[in-house]
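Handoff note, outgoing to incoming analyst
You'll be picking up this chain. Sequence as last confirmed:
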Amino acid sequence: MNMKTVLIVCDGMADRPTRALKGLTPLQAAHVPTFDRIASLSECGIMDLISPGQPPGSDTAHLAIFGYDPEKYYSGRGAYEALGAGIDLKPGDVAFRCNFATVNEEGVIIDRRAGRISSEEAKILAEALKDIELEDVKSIFISTTEHRGVLVLRGEKLSRMVSDVDLHKTGVKIEKPIPLDSSEEAKRTAKILEEFITKAKKVLEEHELNKERVARGLRPANILLPRGAGTMPNVKNIEEVWGIKGAAIAGGALYKGVAKALGFKLINVPGATGGLDTNLKGKVDYTINALKEYDLVFLHIKATDTVSHDKDPVKKKEVVEWISRELTPLIDLVEDRGYYLVLTADHTTPSEVGDHRGDPVPIAIMGPDVRRDSVERFDEISCAKGGLNRIRGIDLMKILMNYLGKVPLFGE
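Most recent structure output, in case you need it:
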């Protein structure tokens, strides 16, 4: 039997009934024959990524999906963003996820995404931030996708125990970072981070690109909002734990970073942007090719979460339909070769709320010898009737490894 597995995570795909779709979730309203085919060949259920009712971050959710208890192994989101962006973190480094944002003259945040500035413009601004000097500490800043970026502070006696500057709110003044414990390291890191933000604001306000944006009626990217301070996680990689070779295909830095931290080989796909314009066909083709060499291939698709945060249920329905169509060649291969496949989401992002919630997500496990149930549609309600019942995120990897014969006997 071919012991190969594909793990597909459609970010934020799970939803709630929406007024715009006459009381249906986008999955329920969508015409998704490939998704439904997966469900009909699978053992289905629903999954609480952390615990019932607990909204997960994408970072903690993916740790759980890969079998690593976030309560034990989570060391801050910034580290994963930095790893996924190609920065080799060193012991003692503290990394932050950042947004380019817009503040007015009073320092009030009016747009956390700077008018969804393009990746190309963000890279130009990031280049200007490379010259910022800090006492006894080196700063590394790179842009990732659209308004997103990564900041790494490298030096001695630093701590990740500093508060978020980005509080996910607009209409409020930017807050100073503060230490979250009484250590000198946390106090020092908060002070250095504040210095970096202040100097970066001056550089951004004076940059020609931002002056041009204002002249064109666009919002300037005139502030950086850091959050999610993190350090390099101390974990055994997935090959050590399960004896398998894993590969990851994703557009967003965070998902690459989590996978890289856990020992997955990153496979970069041209045009994989982590946005709605991503080269999904290319990602599917690369996934098919990766199965020749790797035992477990993780395919992450971000677009469903993007439209959810934009509060657009109708567009989310269309995105789900697009993903279902593009996955068809991969599902053909999996069924033909007798491989295993998981289709799920990393959290619920209700598209009329626009933020993560703690509702369970649908999950389907397809394979040659899974206990197929009577579920024939892939959505939040149909999958809840499946034989897998309701599981936790950290249960998934052991369930998969059980199918692959990798879980040792407990007792005699």
